[in-house]
Amino acid sequence: xxxxxxxxxxxxxxxxxxxxxxxxxxxxxxxxxxxxxxxxxxxxxxxxxxxxxxxxxxxxxxxxxxxxxxxxxxxxxxxxxxxxxxxxxxxxxxxxxxxxxxxxxxxxxxxxxxxxxxxxxxxxxxxxxxxxxxxxxxxxxxxxxxxxxxxxxxxxxxxxxxxxxxxxxxxxxxxxxxxxxxxxxxxxxxxxxxxxxxxxxxxxxxxxxxxxxxxxxxxxxxxxxxxxxxxxxxxxxxxxxxxxxxxxxxxxxxxxxxxxxxxxxxxxxxxxxxxxxxxxxxxxxxxxxxxxxxxxxxxxxxxxxxxxxxxxxxxxxxxxxxxxxxxxxxxxxxxxxxxxxxxxxxxxxxxxxxxxxxxxxxxxxxxxxxxxxxxxxxxxxxxxxxxxxx
Length: 390
Ligand SMILES: Nc1ncnc2c1ncn2[C@@H]1O[C@H](COP(=O)(O)OP(=O)(O)OP(=O)(O)O)[C@@H](O)[C@H]1O
What we know:
It is built from 12 helices and 15 strands. It has helices at 34-46, 119-122, 137-140, 143-157, 159-183, 192-233, 255-268, 270-276, 297-300, 303-325, 342-352, 371-376, and strands at 3-9, 12-18, 23-27, 72-81, 84-96, 102-112, 115-117, 128-131, 239-244, 287-292, 295-296, 330-334, 359-363, 378-383, 386-389. It has a 6-stranded antiparallel β-sheet. The protein has a 6-stranded mixed β-sheet with strand order 8-12-13-3-14-15, with helices on both faces. Helix 4 runs antiparallel to helix 5, helix 5 (159-183) packs across helix 6 (192-233) and helix 6 packs across helix 10 (303-325). The radius of gyration is 23 Å and the shape is globular. Residues 10-11, 28, 30-36, 57, 59-61, 364 line the site of adenosine-5'-triphosphate. Keywords: ATP-binding, Cytoplasm, DNA damage, DNA repair, DNA replication, DNA-binding, Nucleotide-binding, SOS response.
């Protein structure tokens, strides 16, 4: 990625930056806008904010828009891909009600090489791996955090995965609302099997694909993160990731086998699902666990161990993307070094200091870094929504 620009994004009115190919450090005091820069890059890669559910939050509060145009935020960058350079752009425009008052709604407009495109066509063009202090929830937080990790990784790698995931989520929603209607007797129970047949088939098909892809990725990730964890934490035992599916897996590992398994389970659970008014199995109910020497670190790991697991998982995610796509993702590390002890900090810096690894780091304090490191990297100072070289 080279050129990067923001307009009316969070506390930035307008910036145009040239990002160096190696490591760039953005430093500045709290609330100066460092995280917002990483958020913008993550948004451009995934069309999702890592910290905000509603897109309208991204538009600068004082943004005026233009004559007749509602306020909008824009993130754009030029990305060097193997096939050549591509220009990516996302616009988030606020919505207004009939009286012209701004609402909490927003619409997203995507352009690839200046041509309108769908969000799905953007994902995967710029690949990033983001690493923030809240990522510890990946290890000790709710299962949704872990599903998000694997979904974001695979979505950036495979357009079929993004499409199937979106489709799967729609199917689950639709199926759940039907099940709720049966539970509340708003729908006659007679004919339930016929009515669900179509949705079960759709869910099993999409679900089988997602599950097979997740299992394949976990398998590959295990090869990568095992040794990485040792290098970061100094522990002698490798880290291992276990996928915890909501259905029995045994030997069923191909997408068609898994679809069949899902379909049979759905039929078996019919009554339970109606009683609960929701879809009880499938990739949206699965989880993962992380263990070292047989000990589940989500439950029993120390903070330090959980931090090392998160680091290994994030660096592993970047390595998986590189192996699969031949393109190295941009690493975005938000205020991570300040939380690590000296040894882990040295390991992390060694891990990101690789040829062709573009990395964007943020920090409040330059004192977290050694002089040699600072001399090798590009530095930018962030202050009140402005960025200055040096
Ligand atoms: N839509 C918005 N419009 C204008 N300002 C915003 C908007 N959303 C957030 N802000 C403000 O932008 C500022 C920058 O936030 P950001 O999280 O990027 O800071 P930071 O430099 O990462 O801080 P820290 O070091 O504390 O993590 C904050 O003061 C925040 O309140």
